[in-house]
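User: Please run a holo structure prediction.
Assistant: Happy to. Please share the sequence and the ligand.
User: Here you go; the ligand is zinc ion.
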Amino acid sequence: MLGKYSPRDFEGKLRRKWGKLKVHEFNEKSKRKVFVIDTPPPFPTGEFHIGNTLNWCYIDFVARYKRMSGYNVFFPQGWDCHGFPTEVQVEKKYGKLPREQFKQKCLEWTNEVVGTMKPQMEEMGFSIDWRQEYYTVDKEYHRKVQYSILKMFEKGLVYRSKHPVLWCPNCESAIAKAETDDVERETALNYIEFSCDGKPLLIATTRPELLHACVAVLVNPEDERYKKLHGKTAVVPLFNREVKIIPDSEVDPNFGTGIVMVCTFGDKQDVVWTYRYNLPVIEAMNQKGELLNAGKFTGMKAEQAKKAVLEELKSLGLITKTEKLKQVVRIHDRCKKPVEFLLSAQWFMKLKGNEEEVMKAAYKMRWIPPHAIQLLVDWCRGLEWDWCFSRQRIFGIPIPFWYCERCDGVVAPSYSSLPVDPAKDKPPVENCPKCEGKLIGESSVCDGWVDSSITPLIIAGWPDDEKKFKLLYPSSLRPQGTDIIRTWAFYTIYRCLMLTGEPCFKDVLINGMVCGSDGRKMSKSLGNYVEAKDVIAKSSVDSLRMWAALSGSTGKDNIFYWKDVHYAHSFLNKLWNASKFIETSLQGYEEGRMKLKTTDKWILSRLNKLVESCTNYMENYEFYSAITAITEFFWHEFCDYYIEEVKHRLYQSDKYGGESKRAAQFTLRTALLTTLKLLAPFAPYTTDEIYESLFSKESSVHLERWPKADRKMSDEHSEQIAALLNRVLSEVRKFKMSNKLPLNSQLSYAKITAPEELDEVREEIEAVGRIKKIEIAKGEFSVLLKR
Ligand SMILES: [Zn+2]
Ligand SMILES: [Zn+2]
């Protein structure tokens, strides 16, 4: 028998039972329809934050629902281990170490951190099949990633080239555009005196530290002030170099003085102009962000150089004015430091020219919410360069190539030799096959998105297991956050398409971000930060999970409110207490002859509608609508009215008859069991504990089939009568309360007028309202009561 509701006491026990019953396991031998989830492999940070929680709750709602709907659910879990944050942590702890030793420490750190995250995920009841766990640091994973790169290389989609790339001097690595953010910062616009024909020529710039790399000066061709300058040259101050003055219509005549200096490479526009006019390239800085070719400023970092150059210009009287300016600066999203453009030999994946195909594949998928696809489409349309995927870091999958020192030719390993680490492994041939030059092993590693952008292939056994691949590819569902559409979703769709020719998902489920209760992004410094484990400690896992569904509709940004957790907890408490009552009421219940009354037919009809709408909501990933429908029905129809309306039949079967009692028992049982099933994906612990106590000790609600709506249970007439009955009983309650009478006190008389004949519920009015004499009439609704 159910005791006091204390969810923390049975969570562990139920997890062990699910393990024993293999509730979460994918069955390789089953003939059932397969549902494959391409679960995000989280980056091991040690903490499963509330945003992750929302994401995984959504995934688990789907997994549990699909299992109950008869699918053979494949719910793997990976860990996206490589990357810069781990290197930072390890460096903090151990300082600089030799390459191999450093990698080893990164690996140890990763394992340690995964070891703290996994139990949190298990505790939250995520029904992951842990037999399908994968780590991107595994040798097998390395092999498959390198295999994918080799395949794309063969198709001409991977190449090495010297290009201006986005570079983070702080992290000393090339980065992709997707890893940058634009932020507005205040900076100074300095008016600096160049000269032309011995006369001063004022140019405004925010980057005086790049003067030494100035290779041209541009004006707008329509700008009357400067038409006479076309074709002339200007002299760069401090460095006394002559550069061409070129008219270009992209120059904004209203910015500064209407003249701009082009440096290699101050920003993206400089890159464009450099190529457009075939300007000379002056390497302005090295990989640490220190100035090169800058005379006495050489070796200074950008900030330091800026000060020194400005001071020098001031002392020579070459600055006429300085204005404050709000400017958009591109920063590295990880370290928040400004990024530069640097000329460097890097590895690229060919994106340009493939955008249309990627968009076409994305349009074949079902996006939830539908508008989320627009983020991907906009990203595709805005692509300017190929994907620079090489990173000058250590903890990553090695890029599997050697290149020739002399002719830049590339040598690839054989498939059978994978995985390789060209930084230490010998190349497959002694020398360059083209020119006999010396071969150098690539020491750069892959951007982490290279690893994670083939997860739908990895989980489907690609490229070795064809049978498994047929079964598990494409994934039925890709669940992920809206913040990584331009990265994870985009790269995955692109890579899988290039490698297989097929779209990699059927459904893409996008979850929003979780904000603090003040509506701002959660952050420890703002004091609005909540961790999943705080919520569990103060309430329960099921309340936390129900919060995820209650916090808002799918795809929108969600705000964390404690009131949602409290609501969930009170609802579960209500469910528990109602179940306790039903458990007692079902004592001695046996199936047999029974007579359903109007109230039974009403609640069964409503229950049937609930099943129908809930199924619909779950099919469309509308968790908020589903959970709201369930709680409203159970709390405010079933508990507030129905249970009250059958108590007399349960307690006084000698007066109202055994068949009536049995009908009430049957209805209570059906309504509770169905509600438990509908609620099981959201509150897996509480529902299963109740299920165990009332319905089956050995089995689990999670092995039950999802209820099916049944037209025959629809009964509009009973719903109509019950609605009127409930209205009458509300009036009776109100009357007693306003007359300060106990709710169970008896009234002498009632005259009830209603638009429908209420004779068939006379018994309920009499028994629940405790009214001695009742008169019933047809007409406009009114209730007259006497004490
Ligand atoms: Zn950085
Ligand atoms: Zn060569």
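The two ends are 40 Å apart (CA to CA).
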